[in-house]
Amino acid sequence: MLLLIRRFSVAASLLFLASSCEVETTTVTATDSTIPEPASTTFTIKKGGHTTQNPLRFVETSTIRFEATFDSTAIYSTSIPGNQADINKLYGLSDCETDHQTNSARFGWRWYEGRLEIHAYTYSNKKRSTVFITSVQPGQTNRYELVLGEKAYTFKVNDKQVTLPRFCNTAGSHYQLYPYFGGDETAPHDITIRIRELL
């Protein structure tokens, strides 16, 4: 019963985050017709918005794996130069049966000093931490993995890996965290990111 109450509370607190967006899902079938490939989804953050609007989705897992592809829309300039260093969010999970600004782990990204950077981005008992992982190229598909360990989060992008502390060690249920622009500013133009979850 307590878990249901927490889920309802979290769901209610997330409703205000939604903004206009377009989400296109494409399912590709493998050569063996009995084993479908995971769905590939294109997320669009609309100009002037922060988020893509997606259904609240709870997952029970300690690992997520996915491929992500940015295109040229990941190249942007902020209105206030100091905001260029702000880290946008790519994909991840809430944690510890709390809202995501209390405990969560996500991959972050930004266009900074002429390159597309990928960061580890966490809240651990409301303390925010970020660590640079690697840079990637627009148009390039890269593999991401997030592991919720007993005492740490492990972030992997291709062959690069970093860790950050984790506040709890429970398996529990988490809600999915989707692409988000900002920081302080909204998206200066439509930004599209393609994500394909991996088994």
How is this structure best summarized?
With 199 residues, the chain is mostly beta strands. Helices cover 7% and strands 46% of the residues.
Structure overview:
This protein is mainly beta and 199 residues long. The chain has a single domain (2-198), classed as Sandwich (Jelly Rolls), CATH 2.60.120. The chain has one helix at 2-14; strands at 21-26, 40-45, 58-59, 63-70, 88-94, 103-112, 115-124, 127-136, 141-148, 152-157, 160-165, 174-177, 191-198. A 7-stranded antiparallel beta sheet has the order 1-2-13-4-9-10-11, with no helix packed on it. Strand 10 and strand 11 (160-165) form a beta hairpin. The longest helix has 13 residues, at 2-14.
Using brief descriptors, characterize the structure shown.
1 helix; single chain; Jelly Rolls; about 200 residues; six-stranded antiparallel sheet; mainly beta; seven-stranded antiparallel sheet; about 5% helix; about 45% strand
Reported CATH architecture: Sandwich
Please give the radius of gyration in angstroms. Answer: 16 Å
Largest sheet report: 7 strands, antiparallel
| Average residue pLDDT | 87
Q: How many helices does DSSP assign?
A: 1
What is the general shape?
Answer: globular
Structural class: mainly beta
